[in-house]
Amino acid sequence: MKSFLTCPGINKFVRPTPEYLTCPKCLGHIEIWSNEQEAKCDKCGAIVSREIQSCLDYCEFAEKCKKIIEEKKVRK
Fold first, then answer.
1. Where are the beta strands (DSSP E) in the chain?
2. How far apart are CA 55 and CA 7, in angstroms?
3. What is the number of other CB atoms lying within 10 angstroms of the CB of residue 65?
4. Chain segment 38-75, per-residue pLDDT in tens
5. Could you state, in order of their start, the residue ranges of all structural domains in the chain?
6. How many angstroms separate the CA atoms of 35 and 18, rounded?
7. N or C: which terminus of the chain carries fewer CB neighbours within 10 A?
8. CB of 60 within 8 A of CB of 2?
9. Burial 5-37, CB ≥16 within 10 A → b, else e
10. For the whole prediction, is pTM greater than 0.70?
11. How far apart are alpha carbons 41 and 52 in whole angstroms?
């Protein structure tokens, strides 16, 4: 049986991937990384925020994951 040190939800923060949103002002495509909360539209300059909560907002183990994420940033 495999033992995990962290939950799978942390992957999008320590191994970010690009995602795409639609700008509500100009309908342009905005690239936002899975570890970002907001991004700027290259077309019109609007700042667009995610509407979805991440597990870091409600999980009982969020503080442990936040520490792992910060340690990963320091090592880079």
1. 18-22, 29-33, 38-40, 47-49
2. 10
3. 19
4. 999 999 999 998 776 677 777 888 888 888 888 877 66
5. 9-75
6. 9
7. N
8. no
9. eeeeebeebeeeeeeebebeeeeeebebeeeee
10. no
11. 18
